[in-house]
Amino acid sequence: MAGLAGVMPPLGLAVSGGGDSVALLHLAVAAGVPVSVATVDHGLRAEAADEAAGVARACAGLGVPHRVLRWQWDGAGNLQDRARRGRLALLAGWARGAGLAAVALGHTRDDLAETFLMRLARGAGVDGLSAMAARREVGGVAFVRPLLGIGREELRGWLRGRGVDWVEDPSNENDRFARVRVRRALAGLGAAGITPEALAGVAAQMAEVRDALDAQAAEAAARVAAVQGGDVIFDAAGFAALPAETRRRLLLAAVMWVGSAEYGPRGADLARLRAAVAEDRAATLAGVRVIHRRGEVRLLREARAVRGHEVDAGQVWDGRWRLSGPDNKGLTIRMTGEAGLAQCPDWRATGLPRAGLLAAPALWRGDLLVAAPLAGLGNGWRADCAGPGGVLAAAGVRQV
Fold it and tell me: To the nearest whole number, what is the mean pLDDT of the chain?
């Protein structure tokens, strides 16, 4: 099944009680795979608690460990997006605590086809139209989708043949949700040959195109990109000579890494950034600042994006930075800022731009600066930044 290569048991399963995830549970048990199950109760429907209890009973009958994870919406942002992110975060935390390296989700070929059409309606490009990933990592946990090659009705037929029941979420019939509208439209497109199987095939082809473009971008990054002090630097002339799509991919990867972002910016916003780079203009996007100097295009962290962000020494700061040194008791990490940089007389000797050093991590004891390694005030401390991923990592971007 898709995405399971290299996954060591036991395997975590996300089971809501719906047909797809219930089939995933019974298929895993029938295959003799050791599993643990979690059900996320989003607290949005009165029936959700009973459905979670039903999954618990089913797991008890199968001799499978089960746990209910509860998420609560704070009323901010898009509900569906926040619920999805919250669900993944809860599942990742559960998996880490239970010693599970991977969690399997019950998405099917029909989900893949519906996602393709939804993205097509939004004018998505190659990446958006690529197949739903069979495997991705969230919070250090692999999330896998082993049922992407199987249709929804095939799974339900398999369950019926074994006398296994499941629940239907009433929201699956509510056409105020885009996915429900797309699902109904897809049902009427079969006569024209636009089936889930056909759309899954097109999405797979888009995935191959995406991989080829990523390989091209990775090769280009090895020639025109460098990493310094948590910044990404492009040779301006070399970058400008690249194909437009390669430039887009490199900028996107740089913005996401420097900004510690899980998701990339909107296409229109990224297009504006690309135009600014082409015109040698300074710009900001998603907490990342772009400056031009000495034939370079540099993407660095924007100071205001990390203002107020503080963690205890020893923890990861801003998603990328760890500071290590002699004694972290009573110390916290926050941005160097104007006050900190004023206490670093040798910051110019680092060769790093002032704008980036303002947003660099520093050690503080209350209002007392202890160390700012990137700004030349080490005091026995060092700053280590997690390396870039995606096309920048694949290229082996040099550290300068």
Answer: 89
pLDDT of residue 400: 43
According to DSSP, the β-strands at 321-324 and 382-385 are antiparallel
pTM (2 d.p.): 0.81
Mean pLDDT over 157-168 rounds to: 92
Q: Which of 176-180, 182-186, 300-304, 320-324 has the lowest mean pLDDT?
A: 176-180
Residues 154, 251 share a domain: no
387 vs 332: CA distance, rounded Å? 23
Nearest-angstrom CA–CA distance, 267 and 125: 9
Dihedral of alpha carbons 152, 155, 160, 163, sign: negative
Are residue 294 and residue 309 in the same domain, yes or no? no
For 314-345, what is each residue's pLDDT tens digit?
A: 899 999 999 999 888 889 999 999 999 999 99
* 99 plus 244 within the same structural domain: no
- Domain of 291? 205-298
4: in domain: no
Give a three-class secondary structure readout of the chain: CCCCCCCCCCEEEECCCCHHHHHHHHHHHHCCCCEEEEEEECCCCCCHHHHHHHHHHHHHHHCCCEEEEECCCCCCCCHHHHHHHHHHHHHHHHHHHHCCCEEECCCCHHHHHHHHHHHHHCCCCHHHHCCCCCEEEECCEEEECCCCCCCHHHHHHHHHHCCCCCCCCHHHHCCCCHHHHHHHHHHHHHHHCCCHHHHHHHHHHHHHHHHHHHHHHHHHHHHHEEEECCEEEEEHHHHHCCCHHHHHHHHHHHHHHHCCCCCCCCHHHHHHHHHHHHCCCCEEECCEEEEEECCEEEEEECHHHHCCCCEECCCCECCCEEEECCCCCCCEEEECHHHHHCCCCCHHHHCCCHHHHHCCEEEEECCEEEEEHHHCECCCCEEEECCCCHHHHHCCCEEC
Q: Structural domain tally of the chain?
A: 3
